[in-house]
Amino acid sequence: MVEVCGVGYEIWIGKPPNDPLGSVVTFYTHFVVREHEQLLYGFPTRAERDMFRRLISVNGIGPKVALSLLTHLTPQQMVLAVVEEDSGRLKGVPGIGPKTARRLILELKDKLKDLFPAYEAGEAADRSKAYEEEKGDMHSDMLAQPVHWAQHVEEALLALGFRQEEAREALQYIKTVYTAADKESDLALEIYLKEALKYLSRPSL
């Protein structure tokens, strides 16, 4: 319960915080106003709140279903499920059937693009093509660029709640793998984000 100007609001949350009783906790909130009710949803991180907002923008996904998804999956796991089109991971959440899982994947692909500030899909494709045409190692050329894919992947990982050191560790892994790998055409930003999420979700963490 939170009091604002003398009015008490009950906050709906997923997993209860582990903080000791009496501790001061911070929640990032989303306020839902309906005809007969006003509901306040709270999240321990900004990334969870932002993912909640993306989820409820999907056709047929209401606040309760979105909250259930975020109770069982982190924002990072949600993104990985979408980019890998892993409907099985989504169906593991109570109340999510095959049709809903497919709809989530289909609609969230577009709604997750705002994780990449000032970066359009067409621009990413143009850069990939340009890199492929460069002489020498394409990925080495990419690494030499002060801005481009690495900055945008790092920004996306930070927006998903990863620490900066985790994001940079994942980027270093990607640079190592793709420098040693055979050249590939049409490498998209989505591929690098997917690889970063897989690296950061590995069991050893």
From TrEMBL:
GO cellular component: cytoplasm; Holliday junction helicase complex; Holliday junction resolvase complex
Molecular function GO terms recorded: ATP binding; four-way junction DNA binding; four-way junction helicase activity
One Gene Ontology term from the biological process aspect of the record: DNA repair
Region called Domain III, residue ranges: 138-205
Pfam family name, one: HHH_5
Keywords of this entry: ATP-binding, Cytoplasm, DNA damage, DNA recombination, DNA repair, DNA-binding, Helicase, Hydrolase, Nucleotide-binding
Protein localization: Cytoplasm
Domain Helix-hairpin-helix DNA-binding motif class: 53-72, 88-107
Function: The RuvA-RuvB-RuvC complex processes Holliday junction (HJ) DNA during genetic recombination and DNA repair, while the RuvA-RuvB complex plays an important role in the rescue of blocked DNA replication forks via replication fork reversal (RFR). RuvA specifically binds to HJ cruciform DNA, conferring on it an open structure. The RuvB hexamer acts as an ATP-dependent pump, pulling dsDNA into and through the RuvAB complex. HJ branch migration allows RuvC to scan DNA until it finds its consensus sequence, where it cleaves and resolves the cruciform DNA.
Family: Belongs to the RuvA family.
Domain characteristics, as noted in the entry: Has three domains with a flexible linker between the domains II and III and assumes an 'L' shape. Domain III is highly mobile and contacts RuvB.
Assembly description: Homotetramer. Forms an RuvA(8)-RuvB(12)-Holliday junction (HJ) complex. HJ DNA is sandwiched between 2 RuvA tetramers; dsDNA enters through RuvA and exits via RuvB. An RuvB hexamer assembles on each DNA strand where it exits the tetramer. Each RuvB hexamer is contacted by two RuvA subunits (via domain III) on 2 adjacent RuvB subunits; this complex drives branch migration. In the full resolvosome a probable DNA-RuvA(4)-RuvB(12)-RuvC(2) complex forms which resolves the HJ.
UniProt-recorded name of the protein: Holliday junction branch migration complex subunit RuvA
Species whose genome carries this gene: Candidatus Carbonibacillus altaicus
Gene (UniProt): ruvA
